[in-house]
Amino acid sequence: MTMPRRSAPIDPTGVAFAVALTLVIVFPLVVVGTWAFSNVWRYPAVIPQEFGLRYWNTTLARRDVWTSITTSLSLATTVTLLSSAICLPAAYAFARMDFPGRNVLFFSFLAGQAFPKFGLLVAIAGIFLNLGLIGTFWGVVLIQLVGTLLFMIWIPVAAFQAVSRRMEEAARDVGASPLRVFWSITLPQAGPTIAAAVLLSFVNTFYEIEGAWLIGAPAIRTLPVLMISFINNQPVIQYGAVLSVILWIPSFVALIFARRVIGSGSFARGFGA
Amino acid sequence: MAVLDIRDVTKSFGALNAVERFNLTVRDGELVCLLGPSGSGKSTLLRMIGGFETPTSGSIAIDGEDVTRTPPERRPTGMVFQSHALWTHMNVFRNLAFGLKLRRLPREEIRRRVEAALDQVGLAGYGERMTHQLSGGQQQRVALARSLVLEPKILLLDEPFASLDQHLRERLREEVRELQQRLGITTLFVTHGQDEALALADRIVVMRDGRTEQIGPPDDVYRKPETPFVAGFIGSMNMIEGMVSSGAFRHPSIEVPMPVGDGPALLAVRPEALEIVPVSGGNIAQVHRVTDFGAHGIVDVDLADGLRLKAMVPDARAWHAGQSVAPIPRAFALYRDGRAVHRST
Ligand SMILES: Nc1ncnc2c1ncn2[C@@H]1O[C@H](COP(=O)(O)OP(=O)(O)OP(=O)(O)O)[C@@H](O)[C@H]1O
Ligand SMILES: [Mg+2]
């Protein structure tokens, strides 16, 4: 079914909003993007004196850049998978079952985020030091996992709670076991929202710095951590800019994926539209 | 052949008994309506039969087999919910096919049975639609087909048409009745609309506060209500409190010969059984309002003590507000201590 298209009258507030958004979001992106692709750009020129891929070549020729890209990707993937495996069943339990301590446990996830994160991290780093987890891949996985708990529990809980009980009962009625109901009814119904949470978890982990730096250093260096050290130690802006552009990739992929999920109509269907 | 046996079933939620010591046997191919006001335990009872609630005590058996503690997926029951509860992420075909797939039927047979079921409810060719592309009535038809396609022994319907408009409701309930009789499927239908129950049921169970008030064919429930509650709940009814003394029911405005012992009593008269006659002057009763329904009229009559009665008249134009009248019960039932003690013949 296609919706009839109507041309909406131009809304001045909307235009103003769009312009403001463009300035705030797009402008810095353009500046960083330009830096990444300029070989020479000296003050006070508005446009770089020389465009080119020179710094891409030098950046991508470095071993530590490639190592950190691999590290970041495997970290984000591992953390997201682990977090899904732990949090989705837990979220379902919170949404559908009643057990002693349910509310206390539920709010403890929020409390973890309510206090200054760095202090918490330093305390955890102390514990990890004793456990020999400092500077290891799994140490960073653990610390980043904690960071994803909040929205990997809260968002799916809301999604599961929004699934109609009658729908689940109707599935039991036609012969589905509770597990089958979860797989065939509950999960697809909550699917689009949960996909958003998983995506958020991946991107957030990819960009996470404090935990990765505090626990991972010096052996484990993620892309953002590397970028910071580049910015701190290199007088050449282009290195940071190139890394920054590389860092946009997961965001773009996430955006495209989100668009597909939303645009395919499964999103709307999930909400019974 | 499917008989449903409910024995002494009680369901408590904390201190509240939603259903209390309920007994009912539904015969093979029978359609029984559960009728009662909101909160009387109809849904709770139906959900216990479907397996979604477990009775606190008592037992439920289908064809002699005890299913009291059987989970819903292993019961031969099919339930249609008030809010259709269709799976919105599946199209109509997949909604109907889901249960058949779980039974591991061959694909060809699934397709054949789904199409037959859709045809049955007048939705042939709608398989590819998504559920949100259907009207409310069509959605309920799909929900019905989803249950019927599995050929359940017992069909359970919980106010399936409550969210539809009057016309559609009437049409769908006739369709359900026709299907039910053609398939000979034992059916329990929950409603709080008495017209729905009267139109559909082989037998009606009137419920109140989780208990049975009366079980009987629609005719009996309408014409011979056993309790004042049933009398007042089914159809419209005039209830007149008075005293019986020396062979007559007495009220300041009404007197009816009554062969029962003396004492307080409640007289129940249907509007169609309450005749009114014009009187000149006097202070017995006065017409308050006349409503013309075309084929008949309803006259609201205020008695001297303020009680308002309804009388059905063949022609509303013969009456006007302020007119002095005398009400004469032509058919009635007399209740004492919550039970019928006398009925006019
Ligand atoms: N899960 C539950 N927990 C606690 N109380 C409940 C529960 N389900 C039902 N009740 C109570 O049991 C009583 C009967 O409810 P039920 O839903 O069976 O009524 P009903 O006759 O179907 O009413 P309606 O016509 O409004 O649907 C009500 O007082 C209700 O509040
Ligand atoms: Mg109900």
Automatic annotation (TrEMBL), chain A:
Residues 69-258 form the ABC transmembrane type-1 domain. It is a multi-pass membrane protein. One of its GO terms (biological process) is transmembrane transport. It is found in: Cell inner membrane; Cell membrane. GO terms for cellular component: plasma membrane. Coiled coil: none annotated. The chain crosses the membrane at residues 12-37, 65-92, 104-131, 137-160, 181-203, 236-258. The keyword Kinase does not apply. Keywords: Cell inner membrane, Cell membrane, Membrane, Transmembrane, Transmembrane helix, Transport. Belongs to the binding-protein-dependent transport system permease family. PANTHER family: INNER MEMBRANE ABC TRANSPORTER PERMEASE PROTEIN YDCV. This is Putative transmembrane permease component of ABC transporter. It comes from Rubellimicrobium mesophilum DSM 19309. The lineage of its organism: Bacteria, Pseudomonadati, Pseudomonadota, Alphaproteobacteria, Rhodobacterales.
Automatic annotation (TrEMBL), chain B:
Residues 4-234 form the ABC transporter domain. The keyword ATP-binding applies. SUPFAM superfamilies: MOP-like, P-loop containing nucleoside triphosphate hydrolases. InterPro entries: AAA+_ATPase, ABC_SmlMolc_Importer, ABC_transporter-like_ATP-bd, ABC_transporter-like_CS, Mo/tungstate-bd_C_term_dom, P-loop_NTPase, Transp-assoc_OB_typ2. Keywords: ATP-binding, Nucleotide-binding, Transport. One of its GO terms (cellular component) is ATP-binding cassette (ABC) transporter complex. GO terms for molecular function: ATP binding; ATP hydrolysis activity; transmembrane transporter activity. Gene3D superfamilies: 2.40.50.100, P-loop containing nucleotide triphosphate hydrolases (3.40.50.300). GO terms for biological process: quaternary ammonium group transport. The keyword Nucleotide-binding applies. This is Putative ATP-binding protein component of ABC transporter.
